[in-house]
Amino acid sequence: MRVPQRSVEWTQVTEWKDGAVRSVQDTLAAEEPLEIRLDGVPLAVTMRTPGHDIELASGFLLTEGIIDSREQVVEIVQKIQPDGSGRNLVEVTLKQSNLDSSAVRRNFFAASSCGICGKASIDAVRHRNLPTLGTGFEIDPEWLCRLPETLRAEQEVFNRTGGLHAAALFDGAGALLVVREDIGRHNAVDKVIGWALNAGLLPLSKHALVVSGRGGFEIVQKALAASIPILASVSAPSSLAVKLAREFGLTLIGFLRDRRFVIYSAEFRCVPQPKPAKCAD
Q1: In sequence order, which residues have a C-beta less than 8 Å from that of residue 93 and are 6 or more positions away?
Q2: Residue 9's pLDDT is what?
Q3: pTM for this structure?
């Protein structure tokens, strides 16, 4: 995977090692604001690592409930800011000309507010009427244990900087479809889902999503928006993420590393279920 332009920056640092001091050149994961405008109206600004910005905006629109399909988008283009500061602006035009952009923006900022309670957050997801996750997709635990290593091997920017989150999408055969990295774990997920949306792969009802960080509430709700039935993380989930996953039947896995993982909900997709005993004649 080729590292996107502007995703890495060089800097001069002072290194101390075993009592020796030297000046060396180091790499940093880039972080810049990206503004998303909807029908000419500012919708959101997110701090992200530049690269795959169209995918990020596409995934954001879907996972935040602004669109349901790619067909609703007339055009999505990246532009240079008027001050020439960089390609940190994505303009989106939707087919629904009567869409109340200001209301959408107010709802988004309310839903993402740190002060909103857990019950209200889950209620907001309920009101989106997301598709029910299917129960026919299962994976082998041995295959599941290999996914973090596959993800880690593809983290190009992390390997150079040591400071980036990643998300990866796998199909039912265990094949890696896409890896995306970002300074924000939710942005990495949006890039993956945006890639799938633009490739015409949604719904992702027979896929698994693996993330390098923890499995938080926002990651679970984004997986649900794309109909992803299995979400695995190498770290711990949050309590609200577990509640949401259990209510919607998503298989939520944490601490996926060193041939061990913990299943917090819907374990039937990765652990063989005992067959019911036959009745005696």
Answers
A1: 39, 73, 74, 75, 76
A2: 75
A3: 0.84
